[in-house]
Amino acid sequence: MYKPVFFEGNSDEKSNVNMFDPNLYLLNITTITGDKINFLVTELVQFNVYFVCLTEIGVKSDVIETINIPNYKLASYYCRPSLKCGGVGIWARSDLNCDEIDIKHFCTEKDIELSAVSCKIDQKMYIIVNCYRSPSGNVSVFFENISNVLELIYKPNVTLMVCGDFNFDPTNNRNNFNTLSNIVSTYNLKPVVEWSTRITETSSTIIDQIFTNGVDHTTCVIDNYFSDHRTILYQFLAANEIEEQVTYFRSFSESNISNFENGLWSENWDPLYKINDLNEAFQYLYCTFMYHFQNNFPCRRHNSRGDSKKWVNDVIKKSSAELKDLFILSRSFQNLLPLYQRKKHEHRELVQKTKKKFFQDRITNTSNQVKEAWKVISEIGNKKVETTHLKIKNGSDIVEEPNLIASLFNDFFIQASLDLKHKINVAPLEFRVTHFNNNKTFFLKPYCEQELLNLLLVKLKNKRSSGPDEIPCFIIKRVWKYLINCLLLYENANLWL
């Protein structure tokens, strides 16, 4: 696990930072850009974060939906419709099933900007609210609306986390912070961040905060080099509750294929030729084939965490750590500021070149370059399939419910076929029997080896994708010479049934 350069957190965690595995990442990103997304990805790849909560994203709705954070999906957001800057967004890990909570009617530009999601993890329900309040916003409106939001979404048995940039510092803005604390405390929510989240030459404030009713949690604050706010990492799941993203795969390497061929070649197929029942013969052939298939291409468990960020290599991680060190040192030693700026420029170029080379190699080293290119474009552009909201008119009523629309269509076509049946006048049919004198019989010649081989090599495609049996077509084509006699026997036996 990556050890942050500058860490402030629970005392028991300071002695064992490597065991810290946060589930929530909170940051005021001060306008999200392409470079900041790349820098953000280099941070996220270090952790098993479930939710990424960003405040002051500074983009409009049409832009935020195109932002692609690999391995995450945009779960909820609010963008200012007219004013610049501001806005909030919650990105959830792609494998999580999250529901957006509609609280946008409580949002007012500058005064209170909110997004919220609910998610069930390990049979427990969690609600996350991300909030931003501008320093120039109306405080009274904020307090009133945050109270209404909590009243709407609060449930006693649900872990609730209200996080964001509230711009209330416990020291410099004690009255407003205490008012907010009193409001959330009525729902058993308590602040968990005790360390400065924004440090300047003249001030050190805790304006980013997480309020929660969770009991077992760990919080830390780390520096980053792409925002004037510090990052808050929050762990609300115990280590044994964390669900890993798991996928399963088979390795069709050349060595495995060679071992598979050797296994089929050395197999004794004599018992197959002695079986008279075709079903038994097929089962014997299939089970023998699958025995060698499973033995040489076992289904392996793979933790896919961070797979979509493979371009974040060790060189980028090292450069990122060095840049973070320089950022911290430049706060105390102003003469290092030009060095930090130069290093930041070099790091930006390194990220761009590495990412470009990664995707170029990915396209070049594939058998279907066009398909892979479109796949890369879709990933980078964060393309989504847009769903159309259907409406139909049923008499004088407008129907919008999808299930009801489907039922209306089904009923219409069922009734239409019945109506059509009654309209057709069926005339009585006359049958005539004609006898033909033909002594020839209907006879299918058995397959020869070349005919069956042509079917295998021509009809089967060279694709690595597989169906429910998990056997790719190209594997069959690779081992045809070891199976051709068995298949020939089975196919010809079918012709004689």
UniProtKB/TrEMBL annotation:
SUPFAM superfamilies with a match to the protein in the record: DNase I-like
GO MF annotation: an example: catalytic activity
Endonuclease/exonuclease/phosphatase domain mapped to chain residues: 127-232
InterPro entries linked: Endo/exonu/phosph_ase_sf, Endo/exonuclease/phosphatase
Protein name: Endonuclease/exonuclease/phosphatase domain-containing protein
